Amino acid sequence: MTRAIRIAVDKIERIVPLAKELDRKTKIQQQKQAIHHYRNQLLSQQLHVTIQQEDFATNEHGKPYLIKFPQFYFNHSHSQKNYALATSSHMPDLGVDLEDLDRKVRFEALAVHAFHPNELRYWNELEQDREYWFKVWTTKEAVLKASGLGIHLNLNELETRVHPIYDGGLCSHPSIGTFAYQNFNLGHAMLTVAWRSESSCKGFAFPEIKIIFPS
Predict the structure, then answer these.
(1) pLDDT single digits (tens) 58-92
(2) CB neighbours of 8 closer than 8 A, spacing ≥ 6?
């Protein structure tokens, strides 16, 4: 069994060519449609079948899955400038999140609101390092998306145990169990992928993670 995760990363401007004169509501609707169409294209290429919107269902927490391929795991995320789709045939409960590193963020206000007390203390000890902030934020989002709970668990209840140097680890919460994660600084964006794992005194092995930039 190949423990592998594939992550396709692309620019939003390549996926959503929007006219500037559109109003905000129309832009959001068209962007959502274009992103879902692009996701379906990527899934179709991997599964060698045509995937359309009617091929999806959602679980009790609203997380989508493919009706005919329930054991093909996927999750996607987009920022203002970038898009990512994580897929795997063997790694269950995938979650992915990415954020543009040049995004204008109210770092301190969001950290106070969303960081676990230990994360907040560590961030301040690191003199409010931007990269650490993005690693914590994307890890929280990826883990909660992987769990399927999403907004049903407060961000500040989840301690990610993100390290300022190492780019991966394990985190647990009684409501969701244990998840492993891997962080990638792509230069223009911070990308984190998470998957269900288990605690072990022997540690854990990362799956093969391949990041692809479609041409």
Answers:
(1) 988 788 999 999 999 999 999 999 999 999 998 88
(2) 42, 84, 85, 87, 212, 213, 214
Distance CA 61, CA 147 (A): 9
| Helix, strand, coil % in the chain, rounded to nearest 5 | 35, 30, 40
Between the alpha carbon of residue 21 and those of residues 26, 27, 28, 40, 105, the distances in Å are 10, 9, 13, 27, 26
Neighbours of 41 (CB within 10 A): 15
Radius of gyration of the chain (CA): 17
Q: How far is the CA of 11 from the CAs of 31, 37, 86, 141, 174, in angstroms?
A: 13, 15, 15, 20, 36
pTM, to two decimals: 0.91
Q: Which of 156, 159, 161 is nearest to 112 (CA)?
A: 156
Q: Tell me the one-letter amino acid at 96.
A: V
